[in-house]
Backbone:
């Protein structure tokens, strides 16, 4: 156990030395490569302005999303009306998708209970 701790400590030292040597270079390269996304001057006011722009831009996209939702729902209604024309492959894919959603829901419940299967701590 002590040898593993020593190995872990030496790897941490190596990593911190690497970051100390190359971290600022990486930071500068990253900023230089993505400078088209940086708004000047980089102040708190600019950040707050951008935050408001993002919020209201997302808010303005709601009508388009609303329309897309109803188009998707109309497509599902059309498929449901013509369900006798569906192929076995389409039905099996839909069933597998529903099963996957159910499985993820069950896994989410198990994780939410702290990885217990009965909900009670033994």
Residues:
């Amino acid at each position: 156990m002590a040898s593993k701790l020593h190995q872990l400590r030496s790897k941490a030292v190596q990593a911190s030395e690497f970051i100390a040597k190359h971290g600022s270079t990486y930071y500068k390269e990253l900023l230089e490569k993505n400078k088209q996304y940086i708004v000047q001057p980089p102040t708190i006011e600019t950040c707050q302005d951008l935050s408001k722009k993002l919020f209201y831009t997302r808010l303005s996209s709601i009508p388009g999303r609303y329309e897309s939702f109803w188009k998707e729902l109309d497509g599902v209604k059309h498929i449901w009306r013509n369900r006798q024309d569906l192929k076995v492959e389409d039905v099996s894919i839909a069933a597998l998708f529903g099963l996957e959603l159910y499985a993820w829901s069950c896994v989410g419940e198990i994780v939410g209970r702290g990885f217990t299967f009965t909900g009670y701590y033994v």
